Structure formats: structure tokens, C-alpha cells
Amino acid sequence: MRKHTGEKPYCCSKCSSRFSTKGNLKRHLKTHSGEKPWQCNRCGGRFTEKKSLNVHMRRHTGEKPYQCKMCGKKFAQTGVLQTHMAMHLDQKVHLCERCGKAFRQKSQLRLHKLRHDNIRKYNCVNCPANFLTKGDLERHVRTHTGERPFVCDVCSRTFTRQQSLNEHMNRHYGLRPYECKYCGKTFAEMSACYKAFKKEEDV
């Protein structure tokens, strides 16, 4: 039920991050302790979780268990497959009646409408900044606290955003899930893909 209610009763005593389950808190605490009990028997790389080791092992074995049903391309991680599928399903059915811009998801349209109305109800207690969403505020607060809760299992580098960690991991695993639909080039980071897209679009 906590998944639906958003309740997060388990709090980290080191950085105040909150979690919905005790197991998630336990895994998070390893990022503070530096504990990495899972080791790769091929290259010696160490990981905080077994699932991270399993994903890493696919670099050595070449295993790609997740396949796109539309084009047959295979991937080592489900997240990369999902990003790839979004490019196939370039369907934007939710239309903004004010400006005509279309979105794939209703939630994206809802957020877009807030930008039109400039409704910023989430206020930072440390400075005058205010934000459209709670997530935007939480990311901003980390600029004040210095908190970097997202930790790379491979090199221990830390990040303020999950997206930044995901793109960093792409570099470790040699993944380039973002593809420019104009030039066909692939990228590890969404921002690099967007730059290529805009460059081709402006030609």
C-alpha cells in the first residue's frame, strides 16, 4: 500500500533520506558505509548489491536478455529497453489546447499546463525559489544540503539526481540508449542526444 500512498516511514540517520521499506533503507545505508560485498570474479569490480553485479557480468558474457518486440534489438538492462521502446512508440496523443503541443503521457501534459499557469506551490525554506513539482523542490534542496544520495556501484561517484546516475552507469556499461531519429547516432546521455537532434533539425 505504501507504493500507492507514498508513505516512507524508514529514515536514514546519516542524510535524512526516507524509504518505504526497511530493505530499501538497508541497501541505502551501504552507500554511506562503503560496503561492497559482491565481487566480480573476472575483473575484481565490487558492488553493493547482487543485482548490480549480475548486470555488470553481462559486460563480460555479452548476455542481452531483454529484446525489443518491434525491431529485435537486444539489451542488457530493462531500463535501456524501455528507453528504446519509447523511441519506437513516438505517439503523442495528449494535446495541450492552449499551444497545441502534444505529449505521450497524461502526466506530462498536466505538468506542461502548470507551466502555462506558472503555478509554483512548492517553496524552498532556504531561499526565495519556488517550484512546480515536489520533485523539483527536492532536487533543489540538495543544492543547499550538499546531499548526493545516488551512488555508483562501480566507482562510488555520487549524484544529486537519479537520471545523472543512470547516464553515468551507461558509460560504465558501454550503453548508448538514446538515438537521434535524424542522424541515427546513439548516445549515453539524453542531453547529448538532444543537442544532436537540434543540430540536425536546424539544418
UniProtKB/TrEMBL annotation:
<dbReference type="InterPro" id="IPR036236">
    <property type="entry name" value="Znf_C2H2_sf"/>
</dbReference>
<feature type="domain" description="C2H2-type">
    <location>
        <begin position="94"/>
        <end position="121"/>
    </location>
</feature>
<dbReference type="GO" id="GO:0008270">
    <property type="term" value="F:zinc ion binding"/>
</dbReference>
<dbReference type="GO" id="GO:0005634">
    <property type="term" value="C:nucleus"/>
</dbReference>
<keyword id="KW-0677">Repeat</keyword>
<feature type="domain" description="C2H2-type">
    <location>
        <begin position="122"/>
        <end position="149"/>
    </location>
</feature>
<keyword id="KW-0479">Metal-binding</keyword>
<dbReference type="Pfam" id="PF13894">
    <property type="entry name" value="zf-C2H2_4"/>
</dbReference>
<protein>
    <submittedName>
        <fullName>Zinc finger protein 569</fullName>
    </submittedName>
</protein>
<dbReference type="GO" id="GO:0000981">
    <property type="term" value="F:DNA-binding transcription factor activity, RNA polymerase II-specific"/>
</dbReference>
<keyword id="KW-0238">DNA-binding</keyword>
<dbReference type="Pfam" id="PF00096">
    <property type="entry name" value="zf-C2H2"/>
</dbReference>
<keyword id="KW-0862">Zinc</keyword>
<comment type="similarity">
    <text>Belongs to the krueppel C2H2-type zinc-finger protein family.</text>
</comment>
<keyword id="KW-0539">Nucleus</keyword>
<keyword id="KW-0805">Transcription regulation</keyword>
<dbReference type="GO" id="GO:0000977">
    <property type="term" value="F:RNA polymerase II transcription regulatory region sequence-specific DNA binding"/>
</dbReference>
<feature type="domain" description="C2H2-type">
    <location>
        <begin position="150"/>
        <end position="177"/>
    </location>
</feature>
<feature type="domain" description="C2H2-type">
    <location>
        <begin position="66"/>
        <end position="93"/>
    </location>
</feature>
<feature type="domain" description="C2H2-type">
    <location>
        <begin position="10"/>
        <end position="37"/>
    </location>
</feature>
<dbReference type="Pfam" id="PF13465">
    <property type="entry name" value="zf-H2C2_2"/>
</dbReference>
<keyword id="KW-0804">Transcription</keyword>
<dbReference type="Pfam" id="PF13912">
    <property type="entry name" value="zf-C2H2_6"/>
</dbReference>
<dbReference type="InterPro" id="IPR013087">
    <property type="entry name" value="Znf_C2H2_type"/>
</dbReference>
<feature type="domain" description="C2H2-type">
    <location>
        <begin position="38"/>
        <end position="65"/>
    </location>
</feature>
<keyword id="KW-0863">Zinc-finger</keyword>
